[in-house]
Design a protein that fits this description.
alpha+beta, ten-stranded mixed sheet, 28% strand, Alpha-Beta Plaits, single chain
Length: 258
């Protein structure tokens, strides 16, 4: 029995989120169905996080234990041959038996795309939020620059468990232009539920000149004075792009020697 780590990409448009659902299509449900066809005996796969309905991924990390007597590359081929067209295994590797994609993660990185046009564009709408009036890139960049560091994000999300706190450390947040999109990339040790989408919403309002940057700063410094929750950007503009791990979490040589 070997524990495998996979990097998973998926188009979240037609999924009711990542987490397995009793009566709705989910990424986890599709993946576990495929693994069972490959003689997987587990009860549940392990994942770095649970993306919401409509959220996409290019770097979701999943782990599972499997008896597989063929080369690792053939496991990837077998999985991709069985998975639906909106999910694909990008990479696969054996890892240490105690590796957990969520608890061992050092950081997560998301991207959010907007496009500023007065008329909706069907070919852009699947992966970006249409914003009008336009958001100005310098305003967006100034707002994003205030996010780096450790802050209280109670005004922007809820913790995964009631007993958890709402303090989070953001390592990096930047906007740039990649026509026709404006793109936010944000990296943090961990995120609250809905945190990225609420941060995008307030930054877009700042970019449009409807709020000033100090509103964002006050929400971080004194969340008790902020609205109960800031607005929520649509899910379809958000993509989980990468999850990072410290090198000591695994050693390929050590795993393969066993």
């Amino acid at each position: 029995m070997v524990r495998y780590q996979i990097i998973l990409a998926y188009d979240g448009s037609l999924f009711k989120g990542f987490q397995r659902q009793a009566t709705a299509r989910s990424v986890q449900g599709e993946l576990e169905s495929v693994l069972r066809q490959l003689n997987w005996k587990g009860r549940t796969i392990l994942a770095a996080g649970r993306t919401d309905t409509g959220v996409h991924a290019t770097g979701q990390v999943v782990a599972f234990d499997l008896d597989w007597s063929h080369p690792v590359a053939e496991l990837q081929q077998a999985m991709n041959g069985l998975l639906p067209v909106d999910i694909a295994v990008q990479e696969i590797r054996p890892v240490k038996p105690d590796f957990h994609p969520r608890y061992h993660a050092a950081w997560r990185r998301y991207r959010y795309q907007i496009y500023c046009q007065p008329v909706r564009h069907p070919l852009l709408d699947r992966y970006a939020w249409q914003v009008w009036p336009p958001a100005e890139l310098p305003r967006l960049q100034d707002a994003a620059s205030r996010l780096a560091g450790t802050h209280e994000y109670a005004a922007f999300g809820t913790p995964p468990r009631p007993e958890s706190n709402t303090i989070r450390t953001v390592f990096q947040a930047d906007w740039w232009e990649s026509a026709p999109h404006l793109v936010l990339e944000i990296t943090a040790q961990a995120f609250l539920y809905h945190m990225v989408r609420r941060l995008v919403h307030i930054q877009v309002l700042i970019g449009q000149g409807r709020l000033d940057t100090e509103t964002l700063v006050r929400s971080l410094d004194a969340p008790q004075d902020a609205p109960v929750r800031h607005g929520l950007a649509p899910a379809h503009g958000l993509t989980l792009v990468e999850v990072g791990y410290p090198p000591e979490v695994w050693s390929i040589d050590e795993v393969l020697e066993k």
